[in-house]
Write a structure and sequence with these properties.
With 280 residues, this protein is of the alpha+beta class. The protein folds into two domains: 111 residues, Gcn5-related N-acetyltransferase (GNAT) (Aminopeptidase, 3-Layer(aba) Sandwich), CATH 3.40.630; 123 residues, Gcn5-related N-acetyltransferase (GNAT) (Aminopeptidase, 3-Layer(aba) Sandwich), CATH 3.40.630. It has eight helices and eleven strands. Strands 1-2-3-4-11-5-10-9-8-7-6 form an eleven-stranded mixed beta sheet, with helices on both faces. GO terms for molecular function: mycothiol synthase activity; protein-N-terminal-alanine acetyltransferase activity. Keywords: Acyltransferase, Repeat, Transferase.
């Protein structure tokens, strides 16, 4: 078993122990073909480690059976020695993560909210009417590059989402959860261009929960209410698939998006916090 595979195994145990996944989807995918840069072993067995993304975002995990030995502190110090501007995700912002950040002189620089709602809760999930001049359809083969162009425009200033490449898309489309019918597109009838999209997700083997995976609206098509419409279309799709709960992630400072999701029945569930050294 490689160090990356051992680290992914530790992440599974940590998820069961903490009730929070220590690694994002991006990190789990990256560890399939990238060795972790910072690993701690004990008696030849990996007990802790971290993945450092190209942009300096860090996710780390310590095996629940090997905690309280300062391993997380060693990893944080080692990363900061090499990359003083590194930023560390604390998924769920658990008390131990808060204490670690404080001891390392780090402060919160970003909040990512998880919001959720029950399908049967109010307001009811209904399929909306698409505005005149636009048509909704599902993804078909050949839409990949057009979707990526839309995604880049919609997330031009987003630290992760706006950099998605064709390879990133193809990797996700090869996952067991991929369903072309779950990627809903709104097309401008006059130009044929994609104006908005809602990529939904139902993890393989987790049929009770659906996710608002990515909602994108072309900045040039704002003002038509397409964000709310395409979001509602995706929610209706997930409800039709029989999920009981729907989750989503949204930047805590995106007040417009948070307000839209609250109107659609979502409430804050948990928060992921990114920490960085003071002045970094």
């Amino acid at each position: 078993m490689t160090a990356a595979e051992e680290l992914l195994s530790i992440a599974e145990r940590a998820t069961s122990y903490d009730g929070v996944e220590p690694f994002s989807e991006q990190t789990r995918l990256a560890l399939r073909h990238t060795a972790p840069e910072h690993v701690i072993t004990s008696d030849g067995v990996v007990v802790a480690g971290a993945h450092v993304a190209d942009d300096g975002a860090v996710e780390l995990v310590v095996d629940p059976a090997h905690r309280r030995h300062g391993f997380a502190t060693r990893i944080v110090q080692g990363v900061l020695e090499q990359r003083p501007s590194a930023r560390f995700w604390a998924h769920g912002d658990l008390p131990a993560a808060q204490a670690l950040a404080a001891s390392a002189g780090m402060t919160a620089v970003r909040n990512l909210w998880r919001m959720s709602r029950a399908v049967e809760a109010a307001p009811p999930i209904e399929s909306p009417t698409v505005p005149t001049g636009f048509t909704a359809r599902t993804f078909t083969a050949g839409d990949e590059d057009a979707w990526l162009d839309l995604n880049r425009r919609a997330f031009a200033h987003h630290p992760e989402q706006g950099r998605m490449t064709r390879a990133d898309f193809d990797e996700r489309a090869a996952e067991p959860w991929w369903d072309p019918a779950g990627l809903i597109l709104v097309v401008d009838d006059a130009t044929g261009e994609l104006a908005a999209s809602h990529w939904t997700k139902i993890e393989a083997g987790q049929h009770d929960t659906g996710e608002v995976y990515v909602v994108a609206v072309d900045p040039g098509h704002q003002g038509h209410g397409l964000g709310k419409v395409v979001t509602a279309l995706g929610l209706a799709h997930l409800a039709a698939r029989g999920v009981i709960h729907i989750d989503l992630y949204v930047e805590g400072d995106n007040t417009a998006a948070v307000a839209t999701y609250r109107r659609l029945g979502f409430a804050s569930d948990s928060v992921d916090v990114m920490y960085a050294a003071l002045g970094a």
